[in-house]
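In response to reviewer comment 3 from the previous cycle, which asked for concrete evidence that the modeling workflow produces usable outputs, we include below a single protein chain processed end to end. The sequence was submitted unchanged, and the resulting structure tokens are shown without manual editing.
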Amino acid sequence: MQPGVRWVPGWWEQGDAWVMHSVVDLGNGLACLTPMVNPAAPDRFPFVPDPDLSIEFVPVEGNLKRCEIAWQGVPVGTDLNVRRRPELIIAAGSRLRSALLAGEDPATAERAFQAEVARG
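The workflow returned the following structure tokens.
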């Protein structure tokens, strides 16, 4: 990381979930390096910094590094998401899985899942 640039871990709003993500603080504002398009608000990036979330890159071998993530000092792994309505998402996800296992077209099943979540 260059001098004056700081890594900022936090949460990226994606639909009905907050997904663990990180951006960089360039000194004059936050910047995300992940390509994305938000047609509803192209100049807005829904990101909330979380000072309790820490990301450390630990050397493994040569130039390889392993990402270690913790929240309030407790290791949490690398695939952490926070759902706004977990009961709804779990139930809808279970129905999505059943539909896929029964041979339903994946695009149709996904649309049904999204519609169910949107109805709440």
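Residues 86-101 form the longest helix (16 residues). We consider this sufficient to address the reviewer's concern, and the full set will be provided in the supplementary archive.
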